[in-house]
Amino acid sequence: MNCPLCLATRTTFFGTGTDFLFETTGKSFDLHSCHDCRCLFLDPMPGSEEIAGFYPKQYWWDASPGGVLRTLETKYRRLALADHVSFITRTARTTVPSGGARILDVGCGPATVLGLLKAKGFDVTGVDLSESAAEIAKRDYGIDVTVGSVQDAAFPSGEFDVVVLLHVLEHVPNPHEVLTEIFRILKPKGRIVLQVPNIDSLQFRLFGVRWYGLDVPRHLIDYSRSSVLRLLRSCGFVDERIRHFNLRDNAPALASSLFPGLDPVSRAVRLEGQNQKDSTLGSWWRRLVYLKLVIASYPFAAIEAALGRGATLMIEARKT
Questions:
Q1: Is 126 helix (H, G, I), strand (E, B) or coil?
Q2: Which of 157, 205, 224, 294 is surrounded by the fewest CB atoms within 10 Å?
Q3: Which domains does the chain have, with CATH numbers?
Q4: For the whole model, what pTM was predicted?
Q5: CA distances from 25 to 8, 45, 47, 179, 265 (A)
């Protein structure tokens, strides 16, 4: 299989991974590395129906079950998204200094980020493949989310000032098509904000195929800094700002790589698949331990980001 990003034929077998996080499949998946653009990709690439089976129904965060623990987790998640919102807000205000930027979030999930941006007065819209995520977005934030891909949505040309893709590109087998469509629906001089896990990170060097950021097999293509910038430029974008650190993802990725059994989301999915339930006391204890691990991971996450080897890349790029 040629590289799905640059079509280069020089690729090397990197390793074999499994779905150790959610256990949706017992299959093993080979990852190959491209010599030219330095991305990783699954080879062979799974088909669309198989890919859909890799996503458990609990994949999206839902605060509706209620309870003290769920309320605290919801507050923490919103706090951890503060720097995402700050990054997007700065992009929106740079793009439309007078205010009122129209923002589309592709792969918005239950629209937590859009809800926070809506509270700041932006005109927000979402698109996501999940019907359940769209229902949560409508219920919790009053945001209408189009169900399907951004290509399926068929938005008018030049419709948006800013398009956001947070941890989306690694999930799609056709990133060129996605970015070409985003280029079309952006206004002249509009901007894109995207975030992807970074295989140039120190965490990836430490854990390899067992790194939480690879999320085998849901991540079809994994990006280095050079590969994602090459992709953006090939689709007509000019990168303007790159950040290697954020509160929500970098430290938790390290904690979940070290102790995947304590990751709250993956544990809940695995227990559901086994028709089991966690005891209230056990759930509280595990979440407290996991929170302490995340806090302890922040210094390492900050150091690797300062070295330009952060676990994620947040990029602002302008339409040329």
A1: strand
A2: 157
A3: 11-319 (3.40.50.150)
A4: 0.91
A5: 30, 15, 14, 30, 17
Task: For residue 30, list its beta bridge partners.
Answer: 16
Query: What pLDDT is recorded for position 186?
Result: 98
Residues 265, 68, 268: CA angle, nearest 5 degrees:
20
Give CA–CA dist 212/216, Å, rounded.
Answer: 8
The encoded tokens of residue 142 equal 């009053």
- Residue 94 to residue 91: CA distance in whole angstroms: 5
Tell me 235's DSSP state.
Answer: T
**Lookup: tokens for 60:** 């999206």
- The dihedral through the CA atoms of 116, 118, 124, 130 has a sign that is positive
Which has the closest alpha carbon to 29: 216, 221, 257? 216
* pLDDT tens digit sequence for 207-227: 999 999 999 999 999 999 999
CA distance to 183, 233, 259, per residue, from 149 (Å): 15, 22, 33
Q: Which candidate, 273, 222, 278, 277, places its Cα nearest to that of 24?
A: 273
Least Cα distance to 165 among 191, 142, 199 occurs for 191
Query: How does pLDDT run across 168-190, given as a tens digit for each residue?
Result: 999 999 999 999 999 999 999 99
Structure tokens at 290: 């996991």
Rounded to the nearest 10 degrees, the angle between the axes of helix 280-306 and helix 68-80 is 10
The token pair that represents 314 in the structure block: 């947040």
* Amino acid identity, position 24: T
> Mapping DSSP to helix (H, G, I), strand (E, B) and coil, where does residue 278 land?
coil
Three-class SS string for 238-263? EEEEEECCCCCCHHHHHHHHHCHHHC
**Cα-Cα-Cα-Cα dihedral of 127, 132, 138, 144, to 10°?**
20
Task: Check residue 57 and give its pLDDT.
Answer: 74
Whole-Å CA distances, 269 to 55, 89, 118, 220, 272: 10, 33, 30, 21, 5
Q: Using omega within 30 degrees of 0 as the cis cutoff, is the peptide bond preceding 44 cis?
A: yes
C-beta neighbour count of 86 within 10 angstroms: 12
Measured at the alpha carbon of residue 301, what is the angle toward residues 300 and 307, in degrees to the nearest 5?
90
